[in-house]
Amino acid sequence: MATLPSYLYLNTSEWEEKIAAAHNLARPCRLCPRRCGADRSAGQTGFCRAGDYLRISSIFPHHGEEPPLSGCGGSGTVFFSHCTLQCLFCQNYQISHLAEGRRYEPQELAAEMIALQDRGCHNVNLVTPSQYVPWILESLKIACERGLRIPVVYNCSGYESVEALAVLKNVVDVYLPDMKYGGNDAAKRYSNAADYVEVNRAAIREMFRQAGPLRLDADGIAQRGLIIRHLVLPAGRAESDEIRRFLSSQFDPHDITVSVMAQYRPLYRACECEEIGRGVSSEEYQAVRDAFLADGFTGYFQDISRLDSAFVIDFKKRKHEALTGE
Q1: Alpha-carbon distance 115 to 103, whole Å?
Q2: Nearest-angstrom CA–CA distance, 300 and 157
């Protein structure tokens, strides 16, 4: 039997406290680790260029996420405009860099969340949400009052403020962060985030503290926990081994679910950097995947031979069996 989402246990005053705390972080803005200090309520925009309202590109059932998120009904994805990083190889640059999308009011987003639930989606999947936490919380409170009952997924770059994550405790059920880089030189060069590694590792610790290992229901659908995504870059530029060593040193590998991704393409401005101006080879991807396997991690990988790079299989079926009790 599926467990109830964490947010259903919040009372009105707890929702209001969280919303107030999140708005406080936005005035001056400290929602992300850049702490740029923009007063968004006064019309100022900082590094991410987001304003004091929700801007969303698209909302739809996504069938290409990891199997426990997509299931058979799809993951109810909400793609937010803007981003706290500036990745040269961004695959969604039209949304993150060029701000494709339109304004939404919290009541409107709440209605869309209910519509996703009504369409059979297994969760509400908030994609690149960090710059909009106060308004997302307002939307979730309204949606909860209107009958939202599916888990909330926080699908982010991993460049997150622990202070903002603390506000999300007991709101987010499943954390889906990236671990993009094992070294700051690449993070600075490709994402304009010279402190990415330290910030990312602190965020991963906080997410695990809140959500713990991935837990699935009897149908294999994610109810709570942490899934860490890692996109393999060409020429070893992501320093994947450093990420794997960190996770091995901080956690029991059997408690950590990883999603090793093969879908890198030299999009947007990637060709400005010769070393990442090509795709990832099968050999490069297999080496990273096999190293995670050898260290005992469980999770998902992609078929690099497929253009859509769909998630095709889990590393070890016993991960599902152990968590569902089957």
Answers
A1: 18
A2: 18
Work out how many domains the chain is built from and give that number.
1
* Own/partner pairs, 239-246, CB within 8 angstroms, 24+ separation: 239/181, 239/182, 239/183, 239/186, 240/182, 240/288, 240/291, 241/182, 241/291, 242/182, 242/183, 242/197, 243/179, 243/181, 243/182, 244/291, 244/292, 244/295, 244/297, 245/182, 246/182, 246/201
76 part of a folded domain: yes
Residue 1 lies in a domain: no
Q: What is the CA radius of gyration of the chain?
A: 19
User: pLDDT tens digits, residue range 245-288?
Assistant: 999 999 999 999 999 999 999 999 999 999 999 999 999 999 99
The band of 307, judged by pLDDT with boundaries at 50, 70 and 90, is: low
In this structure, which amino acid lies at residue 120? G
What is the CATH number for 103? 3.20.20.70
Q: Is residue 44 in some structural domain?
A: yes
CA-wise closest residue to 315 among 252, 245, 235, 256: 256
Domain-located, residue 27: yes
| Residue 194, domain extent | 6-324
